[in-house]
Amino acid sequence: MTGELGQLALCFALALALVMAAAGLAGTRADRAGARAVASSAALGHLVFVGLAFGTLVYAFVTSDFSIVAVAGNSHTLKPLVYKISGVWGNHEGSMLLWVLVLALYAALVAALQRGGARLTSGAIGIQGLLAAAFLLFILFTSNPFFRLDPAPFEGAGLNPLLQDPGLAMHPPMLYAGYVGLSASFAYAAAALLVGEEGWARAARPFMLIAWIALTCGIALGSWWAYYELGWGGFWFWDPVENASLMPWLIATALLHSALATERSGAFRTWSLLLAIAGFSMSLIGTFLVRSGVLSSVHAFASDPTRGFFIMVLICLAIGGALALFAWRAHTLQGGAAFEPVSRETTLLLNNVFLVASCACVFVGTLYPLVLDAINGTKISVGPPYYALTFAPIFFAALFLVPFGPRLGWKRGDLKAAWRDLYPALGLAAVAAVVVLAVASPRTIAATGAFAVAGWLIGASLIDVRKRIGRGRGGARASAFAAALAHAGLGVTLIGVAGTTAWRSEALTVLAPGETMTVGPYTLRFDGVTRERGPNYIADRAHIALMDGRDVRATLLPEHRFYPAEGQDMNDTAIRTTGVRDLYLALGDDRGGGRFTIRAYVSPLAPFIWLGGLVMALGGLLSLWGRLRARPAPQSQPAAQALAAE
Fold first, then answer.
1. When comparing pLDDT for 448 and 315, which is higher?
2. What is the signed CA dihedral for 142, 143, 146, 151, rounded to 10 degrees?
3. Is residue 214 located within the same domain as residue 349?
4. Whole-model pTM?
5. CA dihedral of residues 182, 186, 191, 194 (deg, nearest 10)
6. Is 293 a residue whose pLDDT tops 80?
7. I want to staple 548 with a disulfide (CB 3.0 to 4.6 A). Which of 17, 206, 425, 553 is the partner?
8. How far, in Å, CA of 382 to CA of 239, rounded?
9. Domain range holding 219?
10. Domain annotation covers residue 261
11. The pLDDT of residue 640 is above 50
12. SS3 label, residue 329
């Protein structure tokens, strides 16, 4: 009865999603308080039934119910429990059910928190009800996770070994929390277009922050997984699926800053609405790329080309509907509040332009090869050189502007005073550049510039922290520190990216037992390979001694694993870190006679990449905490309303 219970729960969830949509949209009328109450209750009930369906599927995976197709194709009795659970979203059907679960959770949060006016909240619930109904119909008619298999096999096919890793167990749910989190901002923006109420940006901002934090953590986690699991020594390859997560992050970053201006001074009302639509649109496009089968990637674990068309139809309906609503209501939108050329608004405007342009570069680089292939069958690849020429300069320009925003006043600022305040940061940037030129080898313009910009960001953040210690209280003080942390995190990540890109050492050698190799400052001795058995794999484990003269400082144990159930193999790297430099080893092919290929890398400053991501996420969490603690502030002036009533 497991599958039948889950199926029934999805049917009830669909019914409640339709109630959410109808009652929520009806509640946008001033005299429909009863409809608004029904919509909120339906949102909470919808979460219960989607949660029941998801829990039922998890139970089927944990108990190895191979009568369900999704379980038989993505699980095995020998798998550890954690990978049985992660197998739930390691396939198309389960991943779409996870998507709907996260969507239901955000809809319930909107209903429970009731941020913004009653009509605005009701409209947002209604929009999320429409989204939930569309995805549930897609699941029930094309991607049913509870489809039965008769007769049931004795054993399952197992799960892709690349997914059998703690990082990848958490990476998809984290990204979905970000992807789907942007649906709340999208829903509030669409509701604001419907009802013409002010305050949507303030109401949606906590959801923007949650989505941005989740995307930041998800991208960092995916980068870390690619670094230690794939055995190629890198952390980012501009893979289309990697880009699919970066694009909504860029738009979400622009949206956070634009919505702040809309909330504080009434500027960028149109910008903020369009960015809310664009952010969720990028999330939907990312889902299409990952789940449709239009591209081949180590990240696209659950692709399904036969159902990609239906995902594209959902994307067109959501994006097209939102843009049509925007066009319909365009005549009712007031222009943004006026501001001087030197002001915080100008800095945020340039920030929006640069971030959107950066996203456009990634969008073109990701989709152009797919479009070209569809038109005439020409297959090309767009790699790091393209992004170095297009994305990097634009993004660096955005980073240079970051420290000015907090130092310029709303509507009118003092540029000379801002420069004076930033002299120490400018000095730190110069010192960083000089140190790189004096110490680093080889010397590169890109690395020197990156360290200078990193010093500029970190120095400005330190100045902000020093100035704000002891000032303000509660939520306002937390928000001030949050911005400094997030900006400093960007600088820390930039240091890691520059260090590993410019100064990474690599060695590829075939070694017999007792032979040595050198990579960077390290001498390594190969002591042979042993055969080991894991819970669901067989591994060749290399024993590689890190030498200090004739002494052994440490032994590293990279593995090459074979998974019998799946009939696949993969690498398990060994990494020794000092905190500022990584020694990275991967075991390659068996060359016979006890000889194996050993690949070794030395990656200076690699840990800073993920440390910076953690610092950025902490900044986002602190901002969210401050936002939830702060009392609602009055609008700065009547012109600060988001939309004009008809």
1. 448
2. 70
3. yes
4. 0.93
5. 180
6. no
7. 553
8. 9
9. 189-397
10. yes
11. no
12. helix
